[in-house]
Amino acid sequence: MSTQTTQPAETTDPTQQPRAHSAPEALQQRAKAQRTRDRIQTTGLFVIFFLGFIGIWHLATTGLDDGGLAPTPGATWERLLEMLGTAFLLDGPNNVGIFYHLLASIQRVLLGFGLAALIAVPLGLLLGTSRVIHDGMDPFIQILRPVSPLAWLPLGLALLRDSQMTAIFVIFMAALWPILVSTIDGVRRVNPLFLDLARSLETDTKTRVFKVLLPATLPAIVTGLRTALSTAWLVIVAAEMIVGGRGMGHFVWNEWNALNTPSIVVAIVIIGGVGFLLDRSIAQLQRLVPKS
């Protein structure tokens, strides 16, 4: 009787060899598949919500279009196509396309926002590091900060005597306080040990500010910038309704005077879309901030 035992044959096929990195690859594949499913579900829900919104909009305005005041979906779509077709029209100072109104608003917001950032960030660093100066200026900040930016508009017209500069001034006042308060708060949250260590190394003030204080405060500054830019974009429409000239606010007010409500709906969509893009731009900047 034979006692020979059968030994398992060695596998020579390379596809049968175990691979050490198969588990991470499988996890990556599952994660990628899950992200794809999430995107499909998100897109599907967006389409459903959008169609539902259009349906409710249509039902709410059905039968109310007799006087032209009800902005029905169909009339709004036709007006959107007309506005896109004449977006770059430039026929004199008063007959311009929607692109130039949008460009004027963006320019005012960026100028006012930029000036506010240039002043608020250094001032916030100073007030955050000096308790004496902060306590001396804090009553002014607390009184002026809650004031609506539009309340500064008559004063701007009286002092600057220029509608364009007044609109920029109003944006400046709207953006100044969020950046300033957020920067002060960011400085206060910096670990004192970092500054003490820098002083023990006998670093000068410039090095402490640019190498220690500013990087540690950057997340709070970016948060303030994001809030300030959103606020500035909210305020510009109301300010332009008053100061006139080109701009989305002026466009909306003119269309209301002409009782052209579909144009107002199109303008609202454009204003919201641009505001979303501005917010996303600052959000991308926030991603560049190193995590503490």
UniProtKB/TrEMBL annotation:
The keyword Transport applies. Pfam families: BPD_transp_1. Gene3D superfamilies: MetI-like. Its main location: membrane. It comes from the Bacteria. The chain crosses the membrane at residues 40-60, 80-102, 109-128, 167-187, 207-225, 259-278. It is a multi-pass membrane protein. One of its GO terms (cellular component) is plasma membrane. SUPFAM superfamilies: MetI-like. Residues 102-283 form the ABC transmembrane type-1 domain. This is Nitrate/nitrite transport system permease protein. Residues 1-35 are annotated as: Disordered. It is found in: Cell membrane. GO terms for biological process: alkanesulfonate transmembrane transport.
